[in-house]
């Protein structure tokens, strides 16, 4: 009998049409549900590929200790994949990361180190680098690791091309490490140069988990601006509102970065007369239940009104 392991189920996630938030003849908005990966997010793809390729190149071996800075989803994915591939994982993240994420990482067997909230992700990245040199740990460095973006060149891009039967006209993705958008851009542009790649960033007044506008010194080395055709900025309010709409109207329970991506994708869809717009739903909403994303008073009042 041929059996499979949990890592065999990374990828091949559903691509579903948004039927409620967009009703426009000639234009389709499709959402790729990355929360269906085993670890619950798009980061499973990069986590597996980064560790697997490092082992393949003999940069690391079974029993070695890895260290990585993360804001959450990558950490969960790395904790899962490290244990499956036989290496140890230390994760460094800001102390304001949600309780669900921290507990999930520890449940998979990773050691978690929390850094001061005021230092943000930059502080977590600095400490991970310090541990690499002081302790001799292997640092995957997702921000500069091309195996991050290659994971999406090998899997996410081909899946989108296949499932849209080559009809995709626009691809929209939140930008954090930028691995997803870089890898998908490479693949889709090879198939059709006319596909428009749209990156999503927070506006200057907003903080959106999973979407970043990095200071110059921390810009990921894997990010190449020439691979993006346009950038859409979203506010925290817009991202939250769309996240709630996705749950209520489309039955898609996701995090705030997904709401931001879909808000931008809807803007794109409303500007064109014909096309197929694909947006990435990065993860699942159950990762944010201890935050205020689904708990604000106004939102709860709206939910009650809908039930009536």
TrEMBL record:
State which Enzyme Commission number(s) the record gives.
2.5.1.47
- What is the reaction catalyzed? O-acetyl-L-serine + hydrogen sulfide = L-cysteine + acetate
Where does the sequence pass through the membrane? none
The entry's family comment says: Belongs to the cysteine synthase/cystathionine beta-synthase family.
Keyword terms, alphabetized: Amino-acid biosynthesis, Cysteine biosynthesis, Pyridoxal phosphate, Transferase
Q: What is this protein called?
A: Cysteine synthase
Q: Which cofactor does it need?
A: pyridoxal 5'-phosphate
- Top-level taxon in the UniProt lineage: Bacteria
Write down the species: Pseudotenacibaculum haliotis
Q: In which pathway does it act?
A: Amino-acid biosynthesis; L-cysteine biosynthesis; L-cysteine from L-serine: step 2/2
GO MF annotation, one: cysteine synthase activity
Query: What NCBIfam families does the entry give?
Result: cysKM, cysM, PRK11761.1
Pfam families to which the protein is assigned, alphabetical: PALP
List each copy of the Tryptophan synthase beta chain-like PALP domain by range. 8-283
> Which InterPro entries did the record assign?
Cys_synth, Cys_Synth/Cystath_Beta-Synth, CysM, P-phosphate_BS, TrpB-like_PALP, TrpB-like_PALP_sf
């Amino acid at each position: 009998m041929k059996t499979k392991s949990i890592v065999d189920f990374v990828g091949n996630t559903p691509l579903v049409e948004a039927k409620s938030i967009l009703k426009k003849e000639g234009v389709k908005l499709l959402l790729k549900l990355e929360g269906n990966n085993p670890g619950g997010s798009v980061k499973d793809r990069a986590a597996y590929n980064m560790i697997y390729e490092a082992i393949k190149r003999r940069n690391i071996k079974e029993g070695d200790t890895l260290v990585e800075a993360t804001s959450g989803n990558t950490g969960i994915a790395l904790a899962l994949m490290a244990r499956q591939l036989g290496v140890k994982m230390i994760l460094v993240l800001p102390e304001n990361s949600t309780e669900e994420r921290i507990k999930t990482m520890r449940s998979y067997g990773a050691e978690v180190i929390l850094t001061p909230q005021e230092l943000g992700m930059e502080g977590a990245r600095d400490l991970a680098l310090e541990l690499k040199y002081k302790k001799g740990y292997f640092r995957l460095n997702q921000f500069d690791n091309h195996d991050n973006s290659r994971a999406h060149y090998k899997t996410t891009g081909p899946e989108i091309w296949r499932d849209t039967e080559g009809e995709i006209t626009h691809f929209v993705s939140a930008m954090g490490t930028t691995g997803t958008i870089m890898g998908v851009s490479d693949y889709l542009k090879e198939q059709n140069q006319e596909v428009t790649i749209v990156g999503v960033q927070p506006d200057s007044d907003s903080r959106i988990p999973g979407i970043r506008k990095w200071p110059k010194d921390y810009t990921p080395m894997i990010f190449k601006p020439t691979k993006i055709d346009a950038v859409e900025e979203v506010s925290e309010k817009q991202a939250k509102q769309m996240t709630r709409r996705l749950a209520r109207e489309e039955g898609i329970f996701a995090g705030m970065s997904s709401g931001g991506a879909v808000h931008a994708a809807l803007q794109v869809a409303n500007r064109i007369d014909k096309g197929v717009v694909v947006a990435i739903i990065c993860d699942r909403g159950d990762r944010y239940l201890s935050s205020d994303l689904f708990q604000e008073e106004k939102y709860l009042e709206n939910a009650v009104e809908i039930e009536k």
